[in-house]
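Ticket #4471: structure output looks truncated?

Reporter: J.K.
Steps to reproduce: submitted the chain below (123 residues) through the standard prediction queue, then opened the result file.
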Amino acid sequence: VQLQASGGGLVQTGDSLSLSCAKSGRTNYVIGWFRQAPGKEREFVAAIIWGGGSTYYSDSLKGRFTISRDNIRNTVYLQMDSLNTEDTALYYCAANKGYLPSTYSFPGAYNYWGQGTQVTVSS
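Returned output as attached by the reporter:
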């Protein structure tokens, strides 16, 4: 599985941004979004089960971020609203071959990673 994240950029506080994660292959993996700010650990953002479409979110981000998928384009999206400076990070998408919801928030549970796309929110 290959993953290609895109859509990052420089935005202002309060703006919205949509990230894309294009994946190769028709696999029913769990696709997750993580982010990592300088000097911080990689943080879970959201995940979606490709086959059924069930979604999972970080409690702190639920309500502002929305994950979705497009089966035809083989792409997962992350819609980010009401962005603030604390959302500044390198955003990664990743694929998880397992189906244990308890593992979806752990980076170590993911088998494949994209290259990351930078999101910078200015005040």
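Triage note (M.O.): checked the attachment and the full token line is present. The chain has a mean pLDDT of 94.
Status: closed, working as intended.
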